[in-house]
Amino acid sequence: MAVTTIEAGVIVEQIRMLPSGEIALELRSGATVRLDWEAWSALDLPTAVALDAEQAEALAVAEGRFRVRSKALELLANREHSSWELRQKLRQRFQDPKAIDECLVLLEERGYLSDERFAQRFLESRIANRDHGPYRLLAELQQRGISRELAESLLHEYDSPHLWLEKAERAKERILRRSKTVNPQSLWSKLHQQGFSGATISAALRDLPQPEL
After folding, report:
1. Nearest 10 degrees: Cα torsion 54, 57, 58, 63
2. Could you read off the pLDDT of 81-140 as tens digits, one per residue?
3. Which of 102, 158, 185, 201 has a 20 to 30 A CA-CA distance from 26?
4. What percent of the chain has pLDDT over 90?
5. What structural domains does the chain harbor?
6. Are strands 22-27 and 32-36 parallel, antiparallel or unpaired?
7. Which residues of 175-194 are buried (b: 16+ CB within 10 A; e: fewer)?
8. Is residue 211 helix, strand or coil?
């Protein structure tokens, strides 16, 4: 979507309703400005008349907010994001922190953006596809802007010693397949880095000599 310069004197020549429900404003200059219907209604701008500086600025601000929101929805259509992730990506593309903050608030209010839903799906995917322990999953959620309180609450739903032991044993077997010479101390360290507790690691290595910690 090309950036349109909107200055005093610009004239809105025609208004079209798009199939998406958005509004396309055809300017006399030949450029097109897209807005949502709510924003256009709030502006209450004249057509076929040159806009003054205040009106042109209001239109430019509304168009900028529309761009931010459109990009945010595009990113969310690809996958769930935490609010922190989405803010970082929008900041890489837009230079209007206020528009970004307003966009995130609106998306949260309308249910498009949810840290809890993101964290739930993140955990579901990680637990289904990777052999990581709970402490690593906790750290990964916090790296994505999820509060420790929320992350711990959601991880509590997977509070099963059997689950983490099974994953630790699979991680151990994978490490041993890659290197037949791994000693117990090194194996313990690698499993600890994968986020398993000392008790889980001890259980997973019960058939091996235990390292001195």
Report:
1. 160
2. 999 999 999 999 999 999 999 999 999 999 999 999 999 999 999 999 999 999 999 999
3. 102
4. 81
5. 12-109 (1.10.10.10), 115-204 (no CATH)
6. antiparallel
7. eeeeeeebeeeebbebbbeb
8. coil
